[in-house]
Specification:
Strand order of the largest sheet: 3-4-9-5-6-7-8
CATH topology of the largest domain: Umud Fragment, subunit A
Number of strands: 9
Number of helices: 1
Distance between the termini: 82 Å
Number of domains: 2
Largest sheet: 7 strands, antiparallel
Structural class: alpha+beta
Radius of gyration: 22 Å
Strand content: 25-35%
Helix content: 10-25%
Length: 173
């Protein structure tokens, strides 16, 4: 084996080891919820459900809720305190997909075990454990630090639209 072949073999081997290490790190990070991956929400509405008029927009939905958001910063730039969300209750008929923004009970993760708080974050992973789907949650601005896996029973709402309000009349009073 000449010097050139030897150097190419070493470089190729080192490259494969490096690629393998990066891939393994990525998979471990994904499993542990340490990888910052962005997915777009699934499309819930059909165009036939949206009606645009000169003075209004109407959306045909069953049991919609209009919501506002706290100024936590965890979902910036997607939503913040100046955003309004249109959400629907999650029932057995509603599918939750990668990228969906959902509201869920944290079951004491950030508060005492006897209390629960509603959190709005994005689904970045889905797995099945003992025939039950679990979802890996992450705030868009949380730099890859995951909320961990939650059970479907913790999910309350699925966000199907966001309306941005850049100013309110209160700011001009």
């Amino acid at each position: 084996m000449n010097d050139l072949t030897y150097k190419l073999t070493i470089r190729t081997s080192l490259s494969l080891i490096l690629i393998g290490f990066i891939s393994l790190s990525f998979l471990i990070g994904l499993y542990l919820g340490k990888v910052d991956i962005r997915y777009a929400p699934s499309n819930y509405l059909n165009e036939s459900q949206i009606h645009v008029y000169n003075d209004s927009v109407c959306i045909d939905l069953e049991n919609p809720h209009l919501t506002s958001y706290a100024n936590s910063g965890s979902m910036r730039p997607t939503l913040d305190e100046n955003s309004n969300g249109i959400r629907i209750p999650v029932t057995d008929k509603i599918k939750v997909n990668l990228g969906d923004i959902i509201t869920y009970k944290n079951n004491g993760i950030f508060k005492s075990e006897n209390d629960s708080q509603l959190i709005v974050h994005r689904v970045v992973g889905i797995r099945k454990v003992d025939d039950e789907e679990q979802y890996l949650m992450l705030g868009d601005n949380n730099k890859g630090i995951s909320d961990g896996w939650i059970n479907r029973s913790q999910i309350i709402y699925k966000t199907i639209g966001i309306i941005y309000t850049f100013f309110t009349l209160e700011r001009f009073k």
